[in-house]
Amino acid sequence: MEELIQQLIKEGYLKTPEIIDAFFKIKRRDFLPAHLIGEESINAPLPIGHGQTISQPLTVAFMLELLEPQRGDKILDVGSGSGWQTALLAELVQEKGKVYAIERIPALKEFGEKNLNKYDYKNVEFFLGDGAKGLSQYAPFDKIIVAAASNDIPQVLVNQLRVGGRLVIPIGEALQDLVLIKKINDQEVEQTKYPGFAFVPLITDS
């Protein structure tokens, strides 16, 4: 895995020292199903059951660099799955920050919580629910990151983002754009698209 991280640094996907340190500290193998341990250094998504995956390291690195998590941030992690990205975020926001992780599949919420318990983070709270609807009771968030593809940008998530905040979400069907949304004010956002990604679909109960 260290070789893969060095490769991601060399290729420019990992740039920020704090994100690089988090990648070294939070071991991807700790978030894999038992039968996949040993495959953590494969730079590809891996199945974690229920039609879901643990994301490709390159993609997680790219998304975190776009998100720009900072110490003290309040972050909504939509589709927390294995918990790997959740743990990376917990490390990045540190003890004064908070990560709200939401997962719609009960077995995966439990899997992610169990995996995160291998580390000593007190700044993460897991929720079972429809991530496409966010967590309005804890809004506004400094940052929101979505690990599944939506057909369009969920306005409800934009509404739960503070002014000046960032939302990173894949948009599209067969092949998606990663979209970075910066909230300028309550009526205006700025969008930047990065094409060529593939995610599982974002499922909403509505």
TrEMBL record:
It is an enzyme of class 2 (transferase). Keywords: Cytoplasm, Methyltransferase, S-adenosyl-L-methionine, Transferase. It is found in: Cytoplasm. Transmembrane segments: none annotated. CDD domains: AdoMet_MTases. Coiled coil: none annotated. The active site is at S55. GO terms for biological process: methylation; protein repair. It catalyses: [protein]-L-isoaspartate + S-adenosyl-L-methionine = [protein]-L-isoaspartate alpha-methyl ester + S-adenosyl-L-homocysteine. Its EC number is 2.1.1.77. It comes from the Bacteria. The keyword Cytoplasm applies. InterPro entries: PCMT (IPR000682), SAM-dependent_MTases_sf (IPR029063). GO terms for molecular function: protein-L-isoaspartate (D-aspartate) O-methyltransferase activity. Gene3D superfamilies: Vaccinia Virus protein VP39. One of its GO terms (cellular component) is cytoplasm. Belongs to the methyltransferase superfamily. L-isoaspartyl/D-aspartyl protein methyltransferase family. Catalyzes the methyl esterification of L-isoaspartyl residues in peptides and proteins that result from spontaneous decomposition of normal L-aspartyl and L-asparaginyl residues. It plays a role in the repair and/or degradation of damaged proteins. PANTHER family: PROTEIN-L-ISOASPARTATE O-METHYLTRANSFERASE (PTHR11579), PROTEIN-L-ISOASPARTATE(D-ASPARTATE) O-METHYLTRANSFERASE (PTHR11579:SF0). This is Protein-L-isoaspartate O-methyltransferase. The lineage of its organism: Bacteria, Candidatus Kerfeldiibacteriota. The gene is pcm.
